[in-house]
Specification:
37% strand; seven-stranded antiparallel sheet; mainly beta; 2 helices; 227 residues; five-stranded antiparallel sheet
């Protein structure tokens, strides 16, 4: 893991793609290279684990006042309450997985001067990284769910994922049917259910101004939870 970014099978923000050697790539495609002997030293150097959250604790907490606003000039902006992450967590509610981000003060619309805002929560289940997002673009609310640590990853395009914006509680919640979630876990993975453990929580908020889009606040979790 590297802060918000957790390595997973395939491309991810921790390891990246690297820069291809075009000459060698061309030879490989043409079948002109001899296979390299596989490595014999494959012992893992370590593993990423998190302790279980203490009773009553949330897996992710973030300080107030550190949402910088979308940086479009050299002039610092004051913290944006609407996008200032305070906590994130998840729970199984009946047949749904509900992931919730709390912000300092959720407004009825994106911040002044913006035409959109978005709220991402990432987490890990059985070694796989997932994210959910609740967003408002031109006041139209939507939700998404995919793989990776946030919405820069891959969207699954699930149509039954829903977002709820609670102004009174200052929360954005994204509901993913458990059955839909389990369709996207790796083969052999135990189905997500009450009693499953989620770890590696991360959160990021986004602001859109015209064609510009950028992160405003982000936080990393410190403990794992049992649903």
């Amino acid at each position: 893991t590297n802060g918000l970014n957790v390595a997973a099978p395939g491309w991810d923000y921790t390891t990246g793609l690297g820069v291809p050697d075009v000459k060698q790539l061309t030879k490989a495609i043409a079948g002109q290279l001899t296979a390299v002997n596989p490595s014999t030293n494959t012992t893992p150097q370590g593993s990423f684990t998190q302790p279980a959250c203490a009773s009553g604790d949330l897996p992710l907490n973030d300080p107030a006042g550190d949402a910088t606003g979308l940086v479009i000039s050299g002039t610092p902006r004051p913290s944006v309450d609407d996008l200032d992450i305070r906590s994130a967590t998840a729970a199984v509610n009946g047949s749904d997985l509900v992931v919730t981000m709390k912000v300092e003060k959720l407004s009825s619309m994106p911040p002044p001067g913006s035409n959109g805002d978005a709220f991402d929560v990432g987490f890990s289940y059985e070694g796989q990284s997932f994210w959910v997002e609740g967003s408002r673009l031109l006041t139209a609310e939507s939700a998404d769910f995919g793989s990776g640590s946030d919405s820069r990853g891959t969207s699954f395009g699930a149509s039954d994922v829903k977002a709820a914006f609670d102004l009174k509680a200052s929360t954005v919640s994204v509901t993913v049917p458990v059955a839909t979630f389990n369709k996207h876990t790796a083969a052999g993975t135990p189905p997500l259910a009450a009693g499953s453990t989620l770890s590696g929580f991360s959160a990021i908020t986004w602001q859109t101004e015209g064609a510009l889009n950028g992160g405003v606040d982000q936080g990393a979790g410190t403990c794992s939870i049992t649903l």
